Amino acid sequence: MSPRLSRSGRSPTVSDRKTEAGQECSAARVEARTFGELHFGDADLGDVRRTKRLIRIADAIMRHPGGSLPEKMGSPGELEAMYHLMKCREVTHARMLAPHLALTRKKIAEHDGFVLAIHDTTELDFTTRESLADRGQIGNGSHQGWLCHNTLIVDPVQREVIGLGNQILHCRPITQKKETVAEKRNREDRESLLWMMKKLLMSVIALLIRLSFWNTKLPVGAPLLCDRLMIVRPLWVMR
């Protein structure tokens, strides 16, 4: 059997074999990373122990996506540790989500094709948690909680979810039932601004990707899809 040649056409040296082995080991390490490590391992929570705990929580939820938090965490100790982490002032929504958003942007930039930016809002109902003072109206106004507005980046060809493009937690203000249409439109905290903020953010991301890949000519489309409150226009990214 003839010796395997390197990419340069010559027989591989010991150094070549070490390099290839190192690359294979590196790829294996990447594949061996858990969901929590991959998406939240770089979260800056002020203490490495908090980041490790966040990774454990994410992995536990991935193993048990359904059910209550006690069922997801698996034991009273793990549940109490999660509650303790969430009470830390340094552990914010933005800090926890930052590494996942960065990973999504990286995947978009490397993606060969176009993606969809799908927007929608989920209601987080905390009506029975009366100790929470900063809740807002949800539903028809009889319940209280937050609105979680998501931008999901999807590959429509492979039918795969790439990740979150962004996520906004919004507290809908408690308003008077007699509020007129004009008064609603003039309110600075009106809900429709969420969609405008998301559209602006995705435009900025698109511009950054375009500048990063200025010398290439492959057009990648990122149409923005939503069900209400926003004018839908294709957002074309040149990369």
Structural write-up:
The chain has 239 residues and is an alpha+beta fold. The chain has two domains: 13-91, Serum Albumin, Chain A, Domain 1, CATH 1.10.246.40; 104-238, no CATH class. Helix content is 43%, strand content 19%. The chain contains eight helices and seven strands. Strand 3 and strand 4 (160-170) form a beta hairpin.
Which keywords apply here?
239 residues, alpha+beta, Serum Albumin, Chain A, Domain 1, 2 domains, five-stranded mixed beta sheet, two-stranded antiparallel ribbon, 8 helices, disordered C terminus
Oligomer: single chain
Secondary-structure-based class equals alpha+beta
Largest sheet descriptor: 5 strands, mixed
Number of H/I helices: 8
Q: For the residues shown, what is the average pLDDT?
A: 75
Q: What percent strand?
A: 15-25%
Measured distance between first and last alpha carbons: 44 Å
Number of domains: 2
Order of helices and strands: HHHHHHEEEEHHEEE
Low-confidence stretches: 208-221, 229-239
Number of E-type strands: 7
Report the helical percentage.
Answer: 40-55%
Based on CA atoms alone, the radius of gyration comes out at 23 Å
**General form:** globular
Topology:
Elements: H1 14-32, H2 35-40, H3 48-63, H4 69-73, H5 76-87, H6 93-110, E1 116-125, E2 136-138, E3 143-155, E4 160-170, H7 181-186, H8 192-212, E5 219-221, E6 224-225, E7 236-238
Parallel strand pairs: 1-6
Antiparallel strand pairs: 1-3, 2-3, 3-4, 5-7
Helix pairs in contact: 3-5
In short:
By secondary structure, this protein is α+β, with helices and mostly antiparallel strands. It is 43% helix and 19% strand. A hairpin with a 4-residue loop joins strand 2 (136-138) and strand 3 (143-155).
